[in-house]
Amino acid sequence: MRETRTPGGLGRRAGLAVGALLSALAVLLGLGQPAQADPVAPAATGFRIEDGRLIEANGNDFVMRGVNHAHTWFRNETDALGHIKALGANTVRVVLSSGQRWERNDEADVSAVIDNCKRNRLICVLEVHDTTGYGEQSGAASLDQAADYWIDVQGALAGQEQYVILNIGNEPYGNSNTSGWTADTRAAIQKLRAAGFDHTIMVDAPNWGQDWSGTMRANARSVFDSDPDRNVIFSVHMYGVYDTAAEIRDYLNAFVSAGLPILVGEFGHNHSDGNPDEDTILATTQQLGLGYLGWSWSGNGGGVEYLDMVTGFDPAQLTSWGQRIFNGANGIAATSREAAVYGGSGGDDEEAPTAPGRPVASDVTDRSVRLSWPAATDNVGVTRYDVVRVAGSGETAVVSTGTNAATVTGLTAETAYTFAVYAADAAGNRSARSATVSVTTEAGGSTPVGCSVGYRVVGEWSGGFQGEITIGNTGTTAITDWTLAFSFADGQRISNMWGGTATQSGGAVSVSPASYTASIPAGGSVTLGFIASKGASNTAPAEFRLGGGVCALA
User: Fold this and answer.
1) Angle CA 484–487–488, to nearest 5
2) At 65, phi and psi to the nearest 5?
3) Rg of the chain (C-alpha set)
4) For the whole model, what pTM was predicted?
5) Catalytic: which of 56, 171, 338, 442?
6) C-alpha distances in Å from residue 14, one per residue of 197, 363, 382, 410
7) Cα dihedral sign for 304, 306, 307, 312?
8) 161 is catalytic
9) Residue 185 needs a FRET pair 20 to 30 A away by CA distance; which of 270, 365, 476, 527 works?
């Protein structure tokens, strides 16, 4: 991500040279360019590239499904990888520093990170972040310096080829002099191979990773062929440059058509440089069988806090972006497959989970209901639950979640609904349907005792704003385990919230409290803050509902 934070052998190479010489001789003799197969690379000890695909040591395809974690700035957040795994990821891309711009991660720390990945059954993509924006960002490291770093910490990486993919450097050129990217990338790859690295090597695009100049796209074949191991995968970062479906599909299909390996190494649902089309990114990578790694788990600053997937590294506080990438359509929970090196099925799992237990309804309002259910079991592991609304012999998908509870919003007052749940595993096997639960929403329009809500816009900018909601309790008893419901009229969409967790469907928003705002004492109040996108208009919500009734506006 563009920096916005505050806080190997000689015989093989000789053979390639001889082949090139013979080809040149053929041309000189008027024989034309002979048809050639790709040079045969040595047998890989871990991951390898075959026919444009990333392959595990056992011969199975491996499609990365995961997120980025800013380890170098948050070295004490060692539980993060376990939480990322628990939500279904099979890969984590870990931010490291070579020491040019931030405190260096030494060999011992790199070894600890790899051990943490292995303990949590995650494939580890390790990247040097100091190269970000080289040529444009003051103090940024070169790819040659990044290669020197990897050689310096090689003791932590040797023998880890089945578990680690080496991302030489993050976004290694800004927008200046990007023509240097090709030669520098080739040189860094060859330097690592000469040093004895057998890992799959990942290379990022220039233009702060987004390759709007097409430099990586045009030169990817020469970079790939420069690797004596033919074991390179390309990474594009998709932010504001990729705001249309056509741009996303065109870029990714260009690599697939050329038989070159590609993944989306970073992307978000929003960004200061434009609004990426995350739905198309997720759908197209799934259609093409390509990997993706979202940015990022938590800890963003400098105005892009909305890219946090969880608030404050708390896995219980998924943001709307976190919900989207983990539990949404084509998201991690629905599409991730654990690496075979950890015992994952690699797609051979044909056993479906057991049916979940009967759901229980609670926190019923006129617009929403919370459902929870006994967990299903599976021979490998349940990765998601799909809640459906049942009507006669038909059913309609409502929401998917990685946990055995969900809040259903957007309901109609005084209306009977019937819900059921399916469980699914990483291989896509789906359980039988659970028993159903029926619930009738409450009547709307009543005023709960002692409830008031104040709403204000703290600040606005082109395409977004920061809002604040204060929930007051003027009654005589505490309000606990509340759910706040309201609707936006102008297409506003919350991307990050603190003090609560927002679930949004269209304009309808349902907010559940954080642990520290779950109880509102008599005479007291709690305050929620959020970042949201907006269009030309930004009308405030007309009403707020708590406990099934309309709150007074403060």
Assistant:
1) 135
2) -135, 105
3) 26
4) 0.61
5) 171
6) 18, 71, 50, 67
7) positive
8) no
9) 270
